[in-house]
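Hey, resending since the last one bounced:
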Amino acid sequence: MALDPPRRRRRRFHGKALRHSVRRDAEDSGSESLLNEHQTRFSIPTVPIRDITVQHAPFFEFLAEIGDDTTLDWRRISAGLVCLRLVDYLLAAGDVPRVDDVRATRAAWACLESLGSGDAAGSVLASLLNVLSSDSGDRAVTARPRLMAYGRVLELESRWALASDVYDTVIRLCRGVDHGDAHDAAAAYLRLGECRRQQARWEESQHAFRAAAEAAASVSDWSTQIKARCLGAAVLSESGNLAIADSLLRRAAQDARWAGLGDEFALALHGRAHVAFQRKRYEAAVRFAFRALRGLRDPLARDRALADVAAAFIELGARRAARDANLILIATTQEPYVRGAALINLMDMAAKDRTEPLFEQYRRQLASEQLPPRLAGYYHYYAGWGAWQFGRVETARMEYGRAIEISTRHGLAQLGFDVERGIAKLRMPPPLDPDPIRDPPAKTLVVARALGRMREELEAPSR
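The structure tokens again:
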């Protein structure tokens, strides 16, 4: 009829007896054969826990640092994490709907409702959830542009690690080799490389830009390919390989001109301006950057080109033109990185003008900003340089020490050279008079006058 009762009892007793015999062996050092059997039966996992990679780890780390789940930042980043986990869940096994889709989507919507209306990240994530809830189309394809938009929102907030994780997710969603996947993968690699560059993770940035160029070339997307080459050369210049970087940028500019790509040609010119600045060829840096400014279409790229014009004018001693450029940037830019660079320039000029109250105002303002490694390093460098100008040697030495720490940790070679020159001057007394203000060189006079007109037009409505 049913199972044999005695046999069933023997099975139970056998399992129980095995457990007790193993415990006695381990505690009382009994039979070695049973101990070996125990070790074989209950083997140690082959992958240590510390080697297991947690997906979206930057989001978990960010939330752990905040700690307080009542803050708006915590709710915004938590909503992004929930949506990314939903993307992983819904698309892990292809585009096949599952039983728990509705429940998981409702949980994500509940997180977004806590943000309220008018939040940029919330609006993008809501669009993503609408796509994931749809029964029509390939959700992996339609989710990618929404994720790219979410990554850009995080970039504008200077949250490079979080944006990098979002772009990694886009790359994982590019499953095939068709044209759409290659285009999206190239765009995601391009943004990933820029985020890694802002974090001073040079090798990872180079790898991302190289992957973007290869993906773009596979579908003859020459625009994205040349952009990736220009940005990869910029990474080389940051790590001190100026000759190689300039050669790559020259070739990229020639290819862009041959292909009739004006925006990419301007991007290559901007790269050459940055290299010229690092080589202390400041007049050439002004000309290259201003030509790039007139040809770039992306507002953020234009802001960065204008910031390079301002920095070069500072080095030339033409502080009126430099101040015009930086005031334009502070009034118009939407990118925290560019705003931080403009404030550093204004702090530097205040030190050269020997106006200590203005210097301290900009320094305190920058101290409360969340700056990426390169800007943070130069903030401490110019804070130290300004402190020496005003006779505070110990403060200057402390700021230089922080700049060296950032330079060493992130491989910022040029910053390290600048700090060494600053430390060498600490034994000398600072000059008492302000640095002389010079007129712009003849070849850059047109640029200086154009900046003056731009600032006047900007200030006209407020008069």
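Residues 55-173 form one domain.

Sorry for the duplicate.
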